[in-house]
Write a structure and sequence with these properties.
460 residues, two-stranded antiparallel ribbon, 16 helices, 10% strand, TIGR03013 family XrtA/PEP-CTERM system glycosyltransferase, transmembrane helix, transmembrane, membrane, EPS_sugar_tfrase
C-alpha cells in the first residue's frame, strides 16, 4: 500500500494506471514519429492528443470500476465493464483526431494509433483483473498473534486484499487462546525479528488478543522496523486494508495523537469552491433528467414532486434536505420515523427506479449551492436516528465535524442497509473519510459514484 494525499492505494493499482496512460501516449507518439520528417508537423498534435486521451481514459476506467480489485467479479462482468468503457472512449479518440487541421499530413494515423491503444488497454484491463501474474509480487505479511483478533485480521486480508500473502501467525508469549489453525502458526526458530527476516516478511500486523506486560516485545518490533519491515497496529491495518476506522479496535488516544482530521481554512475554501463549481455544472447537465423525473413522479401518484425532510448537518445544525419524492405520501402515516429498507413496500414504481440510479438525490445539489451540504461527505441523517445512534455507537458524532454530502465514502463502499449493524459499518467508512478527506479523495469518490450508478451497486 502507498499513501497518497492521506488515502491508501495499492502499489499495483498505481503501476497499472501508469502503464495504461503511458501506453496510450506512447502509441500516438511512436506511430507518428515512425513516419520520419514528414510527420514533424503532427508531433505537437499527437502529444497533446495522447495526454488528453490518457487523462480521459483514466477517468473512464475509474468510473467503470476497472481499477478496483475484487475477488468476486466474474470474467463476464469485467468484459462488460471494458466494453462499456470502450464504447465511450472510441468516439472520444475519433473526436480528438478531428481537431487536427486537415492540412497536416498523416492525420489519420492519430485515429488508428489512438484506437489501437485503447483496445490494447481494455484487453490488458480484463487480463490484469483475472490473471495470476500478480502473485509473484504479493506483499508477505506476518500476523503477530494467534487469537480471535489475529484470526479477524487474516480473514480481512484473505477477502479484501488479493495482493497480500499471509506467511503465518506468530503467537504472543501470553496468549492463552488460539483461534487460528495450528498448521498456520509459525513455530519460532529464534526471535520475532529473526523469524521475520528468515521468511522475507514485508509487514508485521500486531494483532494480540492479550497485551499484558511482556506480551509486546517492543525491542524486537523496533529491530524489525530498523531492518525495513513495516510494523502496524491493528487499527492502522484495518484503515489501510478496508479503508475503514474500526471502532472496535481504536481508542480516543489513537484518534487524537494520530494524523488526520485536518480541516483548516484552506481546505474549507478549496472544498467550497469545488462544490460551487461542480454542483452548478451538474445542475445544468442534469436539468433534462430532472425535468423528466419530476414529470414521472407527478404522473404516477398524487402528491408533491419534491420531498423535504429535516436532517442533521455540520456541527449538529439541522436543515431541510430536498429530494424527488420516491415513496407514497402516507409512508409514515403513524408518525413514527423508520429507516427505509432495501425492498421497502412504501416506494413507488418510479421511486424504485430513480432511487436505483440515484436520480432522487439530484435536487440536493440545491442544498450544496446553499452551503448546507457538500458534494462529498457523510450522508445526512434524521435527528431522531442521530440521537438514538449517538447513544449506541461510539464516535458517531464525529461524522458531523464535516458537511454532509450528496455522495460519500460509505455510499460507494457499502450497500444499502437499515439495521444498527449497518449504521456501525457505514460509520466506520465515514470516520475514515473525516480523518483522511482531501480533494483527491473527493474526486475518487465521485468517480466511484459513477461506477455505482452505472452498475446499480447498492440499489435501494
Amino acid at each position: 500500500m502507498i499513501r497518497i494525499f492521506n488515502h491508501y492505494l495499492h502499489r499495483r493499482t498505481l503501476m497499472q494506471v501508469a502503464l495504461d496512460l503511458g501506453l496510450i501516449f506512447l502509441a500516438t507518439m511512436l506511430v507518428v514519429m515512425a513516419k520520419g520528417d514528414s510527420a514533424d508537423a503532427l508531433i505537437p498534435f499527437a502529444a497533446s492528443q495522447g495526454l488528453s486521451l490518457a487523462g480521459f481514459m483514466f477517468v473512464i476506467n475509474s468510473a467503470s470500476g476497472l481499477y478496483q480489485h475484487t475477488h468476486n467479479r466474474s470474467l463476464t462482468q469485467s468484459c462488460a465493464r471494458a466494453l462499456l468503457a470502450t464504447l465511450v472512449a472510441l468516439p472520444l479518440a475519433y473526436g480528438f483526431s478531428r481537431l487536427v487541421p486537415a492540412s497536416i499530413p498523416h492525420r489519420d494515423l492519430l485515429v488508428l494509433a489512438a484506437m489501437a491503444a485503447i483496445a490494447a488497454v481494455m484487453v490488458h484491463r480484463v487480463y490484469a483483473a483475472h490473471s495470476s501474474v500478480h502473485t509473484r509480487s504479493r506483499t508477505k505479511i506476518l500476523i503477530f498473534g494467534a487469537g480471535p483478533v489475529a484470526k479477524s485480521v487474516g480473514a480481512t486480508l484473505n477477502s479484501a486484499d488479493p495482493h497480500a500473502e499471509i506467511v503465518g501467525y506468530f503467537a504472543g508469549p501470553n496468549e492463552t487462546e488460539t483461534a487460528v489453525a495450528q498448521a498456520d502458526i509459525i513455530h519460532p526458530q529464534g526471535t520475532l525479528t529473526e523469524t521475520a527476516l528468515r521468511l522475507g516478511v514485508d509487514e508485521i500486523v500486531v494483532a494480540l488478543s492479550e497485551r499484558r506486560g511482556g506480551s509486546m516485545p517492543l525491542r524486537e518490533l523496533l529491530d524489525c522496523k530498523i531492518y525495513g519491515v513495516r510494523v502496524v497496529d491493528i487499527a492502522t491495518h484495518f484503515e489501510k486494508t478496508l479503508a475503514q476506522i474500526k471502532i472496535s479496535h481504536v481508542n480516543a488516544g489513537w484518534l487524537i495523537f494520530g494524523d488526520g482530521f485536518n480541516q483548516g481554512m484552506f481546505r474549507t475554501f478549496v472544498k467550497r469552491s469545488f462544490d460551487l463549481l461542480f454542483s452548478g455544472l451538474l445542475l445544468v447537465l442534469s436539468s433534462p433528467i430532472m425535468l423528466l423525473a419530476a414529470l414521472a413522479v407527478r404522473l404516477e401518484s398524487r402528491g408533491p414532486v419534491f420531498y423535504k425532510q429535516e436532517r442533521v448537518g455540520l456541527n449538529g445544525t439541522t436543515f431541510d434536505v430536498v429530494k424527488f419524492r420516491s415513496m407514497r405520501t402516507d409512508a409514515e402515516k403513524d408518525g413514527k420515523p423508520r429507516f427505509a429498507s432495501k425492498n421497502d413496500d412504501r416506494v413507488t414504481r418510479v421511486g424504485r427506479f430513480i432511487r436505483r440510479v440515484r436520480i432522487d438525490e439530484l435536487p440536493q445539489l440545491f442544498n450544496v449551492l446553499r452551503g448546507e451540504m457538500s458534494l462529498v461527505g457523510p450522508r445526512p441523517e434524521r435527528p431522531f436516528f442521530v440521537d438514538d445512534l449517538t447513544t449506541k455507537v461510539p464516535y458517531y458524532a464525529v461524522r458531523h465535524s464535516v458537511k454532509p454530502g450528496v455522495t460519500g465514502w460509505a455510499q460507494v463502499r457499502y450497500e444499502y442497509g437499515s439495521t444498527l449493524e449497518d449504521s456501525v459499518e457505514k460509520l466506520q467508512y465515514d470516520l475514515y473519510y473525516v480523518k483522511n478527506h482531501t480533494l483527491f479523495l473527493d474526486l475518487l469518490i465521485l468517480l466511484e459514484t459513477v461506477a455505482v450508478v452505472l452498475t446499480g451497486k447498492g440499489a435501494r
